[in-house]
Amino acid sequence: MSLKGMLLVCLLYLGSQPQYVRSSCVGLRRRLGAPFQTHFPIASDDSASERQLVYRRELAAANTPLANFRSLAPRDDRLDPFDYFNHYRGGYDIKSKHYWGSVAFTGIPGYAIAAAWLVLGLLDLLALRCCCCRCLWGWMSSKASKWLRSRAHYCAPRTILSLLSTISVAGCVVLFVACQKFTSQASNVEDVLVKAALDATNDIHSITGTLHEVKHSVLHYDRQLYQTLNSTATKLDSIAVAVNEKTFVTKKIYQKVLTIVEVVLLVVASLDLLLILLGFASTFLKWRCFFHIIVVTWTLTALTWIMFGFFLTVHYIADDTCLAFKEYLQHPQDTTIDDLLPCANLASSDVQFLQMRKAMKYCLEDYPFFVNQSTYDAISALTRALQSILDAFPLMEGLTNCSLVLNPIKTVVNVRCDPAKIAINRVWIAFAVVSSTLVLLIISWCLANHQNSEQRHLNSVAPHQSPPPPPSRSSVQR
């Protein structure tokens, strides 16, 4: 048996070793253990499963229509505005406009109520300008003039107004707290996903650092292996840079959107609270700028309904994401969620790793059984290089098959999903409560303002007291 055969047998656990390199190979076998054959196949050609994995990853990277991905979190109860309002029967797919259209359409209740409320406000403004409506309103006011003077008519609307104002203020306080919880949970989810991407890039740099060290060790002994290692390290470095840039851009966009949403939430909640207090005060203090307060509050109520619809959509997106992550953990093969994962950009690295495996299998030449010191040094250098590369192979597999991101996804599903969904539910429920009470408050304000106007009118036309009688003649003589 030749020395080449013995060295290959030593590396692949299939036999004994020659005396000159026995200690190195025994140490190699002892450090590798059983997983060695898994990470470094002994066959001359790669297995069919490996070729299929590489082919699927290439299709995913190229985004060709031949890629057959499994849909996650399928839905059939949503209308798709991009498909003539037919039911969307697909799953969670962030690259599909039909998914985004169907999930955005779930907020249509809030948008429809906001539009109807604005139209009703415009009709009311037109009605106020109409003379006949004014005459009708004056006739109704004259008929109810006696009832207007009653104490029950004065107290009942203000009691209801006080109750609605209390509910609205409580809803605004809950909305403030829910906004803080929402931004906190969104930041936590962002930290988990960004950390997974950064860990992937750090692992790539660790692998390329090992390859750069090894390639210099084998430069004088195997030029072909050196070129393969250098090419692999260079391409992995470029992939790491691409993943890092994509992570940075995505994080920046995510933080900008989150900041805008947080500012809008705080501004809307603050304006709601301010107008509720102004309307409550103007009702009892009988301010004459009451009409302007109603107009501004009417417009803000429509905006609050829009925010309700928006966060109702966010609720469904979060629910779909958590369900898709949960299904991905059960069967993480060929899913549409790959675009969310940082290892999706590492699809082409499988090809580089397989080329490096082949180069490692055939890196040793046919040496005689007895070798001199220089040949022994070459064999030792190649053996140490192979050992360093083999130590990095589990990490390489974690990058290529996305097993590296399983723990972050488990963290999102088991730890972050429920608190995030609870925070989002509190936001849209708080918006629904505040919007509904604002509608009732505006109606109560209009009734109270009408009462104040009638009272001012009655006070202005009240009969004056009769003048005192002239003094008598007898009193004048005295």
Automatic annotation (TrEMBL):
<feature type="transmembrane region" description="Helical">
    <location>
        <begin position="160"/>
        <end position="178"/>
    </location>
</feature>
<keyword id="KW-0472">Membrane</keyword>
<feature type="transmembrane region" description="Helical">
    <location>
        <begin position="257"/>
        <end position="278"/>
    </location>
</feature>
<protein>
    <recommendedName>
        <fullName>Plasma membrane fusion protein PRM1</fullName>
    </recommendedName>
</protein>
<feature type="signal peptide">
    <location>
        <begin position="1"/>
        <end position="23"/>
    </location>
</feature>
<keyword id="KW-0812">Transmembrane</keyword>
<keyword id="KW-1133">Transmembrane helix</keyword>
<dbReference type="InterPro" id="IPR040283">
    <property type="entry name" value="DDB_G0292058-like"/>
</dbReference>
<feature type="region of interest" description="Disordered">
    <location>
        <begin position="457"/>
        <end position="478"/>
    </location>
</feature>
<keyword id="KW-0732">Signal</keyword>
<feature type="transmembrane region" description="Helical">
    <location>
        <begin position="427"/>
        <end position="448"/>
    </location>
</feature>
<feature type="transmembrane region" description="Helical">
    <location>
        <begin position="290"/>
        <end position="318"/>
    </location>
</feature>
